[in-house]
Write a structure and sequence with these properties.
This protein is mainly alpha-helical. It has helices at about 5-25, 30-75, 80-120, 125-135, 145-150, 160-170, 170-180, 190-200. The chain has one domain (about 5-200). Helix content is about 80%, strand content about 0%. α1 crosses α2 (about 30-75) and α1 (about 5-25) packs antiparallel against α6. It is elongated. The relative contact order is 0.15.
């Protein structure tokens, strides 16, 4: 049974509340994300002084960068809202750069599974199977109304972020060992440089 620190419990409560609200309203409000980020910085300061507070600020900045730059700067049609980015930034203020990268990894996996499951549940498998049997394979089945509706509809990211945060906390050590890291300390720079080397 894993034990959680006060900061981790606070973070899990915050992301759970944000996830539920996002699921119901498709929005994550500033009244949650901004105070959460401030709380993360304060708790880090209380536990580790100014150095820990700077790590928290660095985590906030890294989270904003990985959520906003690829989606809103590089892509023509952003799929994320700023509320999602601000929630991830608040997480970064709690766990620092290395921790938020780990959270983003698990969030991406969970979101991918949700997206695949949603698409698979409405995919016209019978139409595709019939096309394969008759030997007349066209892409008409891709124009299925339910499938197109599912592809165009937005998936709230809050729940996936919440689950990803929980997994990042619980599975941090085995995941870091698997990726070849010992921890997320030193401002998270070892992990950041490795991710940067992968992308660039």
């Amino acid at each position: 049974m894993p034990t959680f620190s006060i900061a981790q419990i606070a973070l899990l409560v915050i992301v759970t509340v944000a996830g539920v609200i996002d699921w119901k309203t498709k929005k994550i409000f500033n009244v949650i994300t901004f105070p959460a980020a401030a709380l993360g910085i304060v708790l880090n300061f209380m536990s580790g002084g100014w150095q820990a507070a700077l790590v928290a600020v660095a985590g906030w900045i890294v989270a904003v960068a990985i959520m906003i730059v690829p989606d809103h700067v590089l892509m023509k049609k952003p799929k994320m809202y700023f509320g999602d980015a601000k929630l991830m930034a608040a997480i970064g203020a709690f766990v620092g750069p290395g921790g938020v990268l780990l959270t983003f990894l698990f969030f991406s996996i969970i979101y991918g599974l949700v997206a695949v499951t949603k698409t698979a549940s409405v995919f016209p498998w019978q139409k595709m199977s019939m096309a394969m049997k008759t030997g007349v394979v066209t892409d008409d089945f891709l124009q299925d109304e339910k499938l197109q509706s599912a592809l165009k509809s937005k998936i709230p990211l809050g729940p996936s972020i919440a689950v990803g945060t929980f997994l990042a906390i619980v599975l941090q050590k085995p995941t870091l060992d698997l990726l070849g890291f010992h921890d997320t300390t030193l401002f998270g720079w070892p992990m950041i440089l490795s991710f940067a080397g992968y992308w660039f």
